[in-house]
Design a protein that fits this description.
Blueprint: H1 3-16, H2 24-43, H3 53-71, H4 75-82, H5 90-98, H6 104-123, H7 128-148, H8 153-164, E1 169-172, E2 175-178
Antiparallel strand pairs: 1-2
Helix pairs in contact: 1-3, 1-4, 1-8, 2-3, 2-6, 3-7, 3-8, 6-7
Length: 184
């Protein structure tokens, strides 16, 4: 499935559950939770396991897509017009690898920085373009991390979508709680 098709499916899934109406800060909290899981998976070299790098990359994208949906950042339009824009700097990343200057942990640090700029722009009432630019940088970081672990954003987003597509739950205080977590 193409990235655009997956993005549309995730957006529809979110709309069907009312996730497109939650407060942006609540969704950003979910994004940071996924970021923490990604960092831990990288630290533990957990690539394919539950909450592994691939799983976390997909979950991170789902939360980011929903954040964009809430904020009116038209990721879909950008993918329609530019394709996989996050691959723009692949040549530079390859050059750094060849020179021995590529460090996936530094990419993760930049991911943290880029994602923090998303909410910073929101909190400061900056024009939406500032958030959009930070989303682009975040997607580039996710792409670079995915490549380092021999996967793609498409593959990991499809994994995540297949995991959530039939998920049920309910909104509690503006947060979607999975059905299986309601009984804990």
């Amino acid at each position: 499935m193409s990235y655009l098709e997956l993005l549309e499916k995730v957006e529809q899934w979110a709309k069907d559950r009312g996730l497109d109406t939650v407060e942006a800060r609540s969704q950003y909290t979910k994004l940071i939770e996924e970021q923490g899981e990604l960092g831990l998976a990288m630290l533990e070299d957990n690539i394919n396991g539950d909450s592994g790098v691939k799983d976390s990359l997909g979950d991170y994208q789902v939360t980011l897509i929903i954040y964009c949906l809430i904020r009116g950042i038209d990721l879909k339009k950008q993918v329609e017009e530019e394709g996989n824009f996050w691959t723009e700097y692949d040549d530079l990343a390859q050059k750094h690898k060849e020179e021995g200057n590529f460090d996936v942990n530094k990419v993760f640090n930049y991911l943290v920085f880029s994602s923090s700029r998303i909410i910073s722009a929101y909190n400061r009432n900056r024009p939406i373009e500032f958030e959009h630019l930070s989303v682009e940088r975040t997607m580039e970081c996710l792409h670079d991390i995915a490549k380092e672990y021999n996967t793609t954003l498409e593959e990991t987003l499809e994994m995540a979508y297949n995991e959530i597509k039939n998920r049920k739950g309910k909104m509690i205080d503006g947060v979607f709680v999975k059905e299986e977590d309601l009984h804990e």
